[in-house]
Specification:
The protein is of the alpha/beta class. Helix content is 46%, strand content 15%. It is built from eight helices and seven strands; from the N terminus they run βαβαβαβαβαβαααβ. It has a seven-stranded parallel beta sheet with strand order 3-2-1-4-5-6-7, sandwiched between helices. This is SDR family oxidoreductase.
Amino acid sequence: MKKIAIITGGGSGIGLATAEKFVRASIHTIIIGRDQQKLSEAAEKLGPLCETIACDLNTLCEIPKLVQCILDKHGRIDILVNNAGINMKKELVEVTDAEFQNILLTNVTAAFSLTREVIKAMLAQQINGSIINISSMASQYGLPKVIAYTASKAAIEGMTRAMAVELSPRGIRVNCIAPGFIATNMSAKALNNDPERKQKVMSRTPMGVLGNPSDIGDAALFLASDAACYITGVILPVDGGNSIGF
């Protein structure tokens, strides 16, 4: 039976690269995002095993309907990749409460809400499912000027461990990937406008290069596969050694 996967933020960057790896592995992949044009371009590139749903996951009340719609069409959900996220670079004292809450809503609350609904379906059908959360190096050590993003990714890692302990006895593995500095539009914007920050990033990355989105896609495909059947609750850095760099 063909596996069904959901990838949030699947229209570009890490999400798109992960969708590409899944489709090549013959997994029917549903990519979710806010920008229908971006999603359509991705689906055209990925072919018939890729399906798109335009949805703003911040509208939490729509999430149960979204999951039910996927279940009505496909009958099951095997894999969920919580990749959608936003960042904001700003001095801590300038971050407003509304800005902080908005990042937590997108990066944490929406991911939790979607995961909860998908898990309900997996448990009801006794599916050996796989949940993969996307964290960040920001949760591994202190990064200045990204306080809300850092808080959100630390929350994602904590949720990963708690979910893994609660759900693994019931056949659902929960893991997390912590990407290092990956060559995406988001990271390019952050680094190219700040040469000093970029130099610091490169100097403490033993491999000496930025990662590619496909590196994260490969890790996600592994964690979703039977090859990782005894792996749960891990936070896997995919970072060229950045997290242990001097």
